[in-house]
What we know:
- By secondary structure, the protein is of the alpha/beta class.
- It folds into two domains: about 120 residues, 3-Layer(aba) Sandwich (Rossmann fold), CATH 3.40.50.2300; about 100 residues, Arc Repressor Mutant, subunit A, CATH 1.10.10.10.
- Helices cover about 40% and strands about 20% of the residues.
- The protein is built from eight helices and twelve strands.
- It has a five-stranded parallel sheet, sandwiched between helices.
- A hairpin with a 3-residue loop joins β11 and β12.
- The longest helix has 13 residues.
- The relative contact order is 0.12.
- Calcium ion binds next to loops.
Amino acid sequence: MRILIVEDEHRIANTIKKGLEQERYAIDVAYDGTSGLDLASEGLYDLIILDLMLPQIDGLTVCRELRKKQIHTPILILTAKGQIQDKVEGLDAGADDYLIKPFSFEELLARVRALSRRPKNLLSEILIVEDLELNTKQFEVFRNRSSIRLSSKEFSLLEYLMRHAGKILTKDQIINHVWNYDADVLPNTVEVYIRNLRKKIDHPFKNKRQLIKTIRGFGYKIGD
Ligand code: CA
């Protein structure tokens, strides 16, 4: 899950970034409306957290412009004002939810969870592919009831594959949704992570079906 934070107050932006990174999200930050709009327009994000009062272009305009460009990424608005008028305008501009500053990180996280899984049948916090089970809230993975320890990136990669079970995902799609722009992503990074994942979720289960499949020339998928 990759999230863009558009917030000019560095302290708030960095606190949210750190907190969400601990929750295994890949985070990019824009500190003004123009770069926020540019980044968001690429359509790579699963969620945008958008402050309203921003330098250059304000948040409501960013929101409207994105919807005009047919970018339908869920948007969570942050507003310091908390006036009913702002909320209505934000939702009218195409935002999906709002949060009034100051807010607790737990509350932000709950909204982020709700919004980032809204587009699919992702209401459940537990993703299942055959006998492989991933709990997005407890950060636990089990296969055939035995617990599997994954690094934080391996977990994000597996979650992304499982949320799109049965679908072929290209390396570019995987990189765009699992890593942020600051990450050192080399051409073979995805292969390396896939190999490590296989060592943990497939290879120890020799008498079971191997779940991660390489589709030569296209990418990877998990499950049928
Ligand atoms: Ca602001």
